[in-house]
Design goal:
Blueprint: H1 2-24, E1 51-55, H2 59-75, E2 80-85, H3 88-97, E3 103-106, H4 112-122, E4 124-130, H5 136-144, E5 149-154, H6 158-164, H7 168-177, E6 180-183, H8 186-194, E7 201-203, H9 217-228, E8 234-241, H10 245-252, E9 261-267, H11 273-282, E10 287-289, E11 302-304, H12 311-317, E12 320-323, H13 336-340, E13 345-347, H14 355-363, E14 367-369, H15 373-385, H16 387-404, H17 407-414
Parallel strand pairs: 1-2, 1-4, 2-3, 4-5, 5-6, 6-7, 8-9, 8-12, 9-11, 10-11, 12-13, 13-14
Helix pairs in contact: 2-3, 4-5, 5-7, 9-12
Length: 422
């Protein structure tokens, strides 16, 4: 009965879902592409091999899934692989970093007809949902069809757990229909079990520790070095900033934004590139856009990173990074990416999306957490003036990540038997 009312509500909200796609498409036209896929209409796949399916909603989940994707390709060469997404940026990430023969489509809305058409088209023999992608109708239908479905790299913040606890019957039913929950940490495992999971919950670590650098990374770094030239610029990154964080941060650090310091400002969402550029202009800050493909001028204060797939290159060139999503209550972005290349991080107070990783990074002296804007500014000034401390913290972070690798191997070890063809 709970699933019935959930489905009824989803049907009623469907026009708003499409209105939201249209609205977001004003600034990011890719949201207006492939609309039939959102209702489960796809071209018939030409590959007739049994298919393994992974759902990675957006950029972060897709990047986390990359080690698993490549491992599955190697382990199951006789199977096709399908990656589904929810956002255009996730789909674009897959296009850059995944072999062309891997299928890529949008996951349909969680409605009976859409889910049925999706499963009828692709007929997966096994599925993986990344992190916290819990869709009641999708999970229920896979369960009815005896399709093994694993919640991989599973994480659940205290905040999300409280929200899920408001609909206990629906959530408990979903969790018990999953084949397995591969949790990132003991705290994540505990929260899933507290919500009623009876499916095996195993602590397997974070797939993001196993990530490898993008293939184009060395060439991109070389190009950026050439653009910077021989001038001694102290580069730092404000990474994956969210709406309102530039307005909070930039006025407070105006005096810091002077050569030889160079801030690389990378908004999280492409549709905000133009509005952030307008805001920089309103503050009379000298800036350049990455998309201009021009060497960085001596008087440039801010480089606006209006590009996709290049943030790791800037991490490698930077002394440190301020993690977006932590300055305001958005929960933070993936701090493992800069630490992986030796770039220490400054965190704001809001890290609930990456609570375990943030706590451990602080314990390893690879990160600094600030509790207010004044503290953030003070630490930016100190880090800019102390490259040796930045280097030491970066090395600490790299050693920690190396010790934590292995989640992909543990997950594959769980899959000791090949998927059974339906």
């Amino acid at each position: 009965m709970t699933l019935f009312f959930y489905t009824l509500l989803t049907r009623l909200l469907l026009p708003l879902f499409y209105l939201r796609l249209w609205w977001r498409g004003r600034h990011q036209p890719e949201y207006r592409d492939h609309w039939p896929e959102r209702l489960g209409y796809y071209p018939k796949p030409s590959d007739s091999r049994p298919l393994i399916w992974i759902h990675a909603v957006s950029v972060g989940e897709t990047q986390a899934a990359l080690p698993l994707i490549h491992a599955l390709i190697e382990r199951y060469p006789d199977h096709a692989l399908l990656i589904t997404h929810t956002t255009p940026t996730g789909r674009a990430t897959a296009n850059m970093d995944i072999p062309p023969r891997v299928l890529r489509v949008y996951l349909p809305y969680d409605l009976p007809g859409s889910v049925t058409r999706f499963l009828d088209t692709f007929k997966p023999v096994r599925g993986f949902l990344l992190e916290t992608e819990l869709w009641p109708r999708l999970i229920d239908t896979c369960h009815q069809r005896h399709i093994p479905l694993i919640l991989a790299n599973a994480r659940l913040s205290e905040r999300s757990a409280r929200r899920y606890a408001r609909i206990p019957t629906l959530v408990r039913g979903m969790l018990r229909q999953l084949t397995h929950i591969a949790a990132q940490s003991p705290a994540d495992a505990y929260r899933f079990e507290a919500l009623g999971a009876r499916t095996p919950v195993t602590i397997m670590g974070n797939l993001k520790f196993d990530a490898v650098l993008p293939r184009q990374h060395p060439e991109t770094v070389t190009q950026f070095r050439q653009w910077i030239g021989e001038r001694q610029r102290r580069i730092w990154v404000a990474a994956s900033t969210r709406d309102g964080e530039e307005v909070l941060l930039l006025p407070a650090i105006y005096k810091i934004l002077q050569p030889p310091n160079l801030l690389v400002l990378v908004p999280r969402h492409p549709q905000r590139f133009d509005s952030v550029a307008d805001y920089l202009s309103s503050l009379n800050i000298s800036f350049q856009r990455r998309s201009s493909n021009q060497p960085i001028s001596p008087d440039c204060q801010v480089l606006l990173g209006d590009s996709m797939g290049e943030l790791n290159a800037w991490y490698q060139l930077a002394q440190f990074a301020v993690m977006g999503g932590t300055l305001l209550p958005f929960g933070g972005q993936n701090l493992l990416e800069p630490l992986r290349v030796g770039c220490p991080v400054i965190l704001g107070p809001h890290t609930y999306n990456f609570a375990e990783a943030s706590t451990e990074a602080l314990a390893q002296d690879a990160a600094i957490q600030c509790h207010d804007l004044r503290d953030i500014v003070l630490n930016i000034e100190q880090m800019l003036s102390d490259p040796e401390t930045c280097r030491r913290m970066g090395q600490q972070g790299q050693r920690w990540i190396e010790r934590e690798r292995g989640a992909t191997h543990r997950l594959l070890a769980y899959l000791s038997n090949p998927p059974v063809t339906a």
